[in-house]
Amino acid sequence: MGSFARRRLVLLLLIAVVGMAALVALRPATAGAAGVTPAAAGSSQNANKTISYTAQLSGQITQDTYLGTDDQGNALHYLTIDATLTPQGNNPPVALHLYISEAFYPGIGTQQQQDVLPGSGTVAAAGILRGTANVTNTGGTITLYDANVSGLYLGDGSMHFDLEGAGVGKASGGKTSLYLTIAPSAGEQISGQVSGTLDLPQAALDLITSNDPLVGPTVWYLLRASGLAALALLTFSVLVGLALRVRLWKETLERWRIYDVHLTVSILTGVFLGLHLLLVFLDRVVPFSLADLLIPFHSSYQPIWVAAGIVGLYLLLVVWGSSLIRSKLGYSLWRKLHPLALGALGLAMLHALFAGTDGPTLWLRATLVSIAVAVIWLFERWMRLREVENSRRRKPGAPRQQPGQRQPAPPQYARPANSPPPQGYRPRQGVRQD
Fold first, then answer.
1. Residues in CB range of 201: below 8 A, 6 or more apart
2. Where is pLDDT greater, at 254 or 307?
3. CA angle, 273 as apex, 270 and 275 as ends, to 5°?
4. Which of 288, 342, 267, 280 is nearest to 16 (CA)?
5. Is 403 a domain residue?
6. Total count of domains within the chain
7. What is the pLDDT of residue 45?
8. Which of 57, 66, 92, 290 could bridge 192 with an S-S bond, Cβ 3.0-4.6 Å?
């Protein structure tokens, strides 16, 4: 390993040390928010606060898909509605995300139905609405409730919804009951009124009303971006390493000084991975202790898939550390340890899929499938190449050479004394000496 490459790997380890020091130095002792001091937090953080909630609703219908008709001739639709609630008084603003998976429109005018709003009697309904919803902070970073939704589409074009949900995450133990009236609208934009109650734990209320910058969406976006960047760089490094092993596009890769690129990308992977760990540690929404970051299965949040990321990190540290002391380990041992990066990549993909925010998205799943196909294809070529190389080392029928045994040197050719010289042979002319 050259001195320049060694310096870069030393820089990588220094970044890791500084990052771990920053984890300890920057993490506050408590995550109190909204003016709640650590001393006052105590048991009050575990108490629930019931809020009588009245708010103005504004938002839009982000999707209205016609699914056809059922056996009874009902027209079926799939609706998604995103809305922000601006409450009266000092109550916190929240956001609603409705997913109406069953919207029946009988197509026979209106029928008298029992309204979903309390104390409203019967109304002329043109459709029945059912689905699910979640309630979040306005930034969409903190989910408070998961809910079931039932509703009616009225003859005048308005919609009534009854939303009943249970708390999740920081709001675990709470519940909500909200009643929505969405005014008739000819376009995608909607408006209306909301009333009901929020039974919200004090810790969740402090979190969504906090002015702490570590609670806002900026940290959330940076956390996701750093993790995805580290995954992309690790993928590139592993794919390039496999391509070099199977001598794929060898001339093109070497023309681009690909060995230096491979090393540089590995260092950048470590930088973004360190940033990701730092942001996870500082995040207030899903708090992680230092033990949660370093000990597999210690975290209460997605313990299996967080453990996959931790074990993948340790495998990478073994690969990077062995590269740093390759001259002392020996080339053979270093080469045997280097494929651990494949296992690290697989664990990182599982971590991103099941523990990350973007795991359910189609684009990330398609990307991970593409990465898996590329790695499997290159790995299969590598295995075939190894079989070919092993077969060439030992030809069929050739005696097996014992370890440490040298092949005997071929005998020197000696021409018989009285045999004529070979055709075209000229004796060397002597040099005359005076």
1. 45, 46, 47, 48, 49, 167, 170, 171, 172, 173, 174
2. 307
3. 110
4. 267
5. no
6. 2
7. 44
8. 57
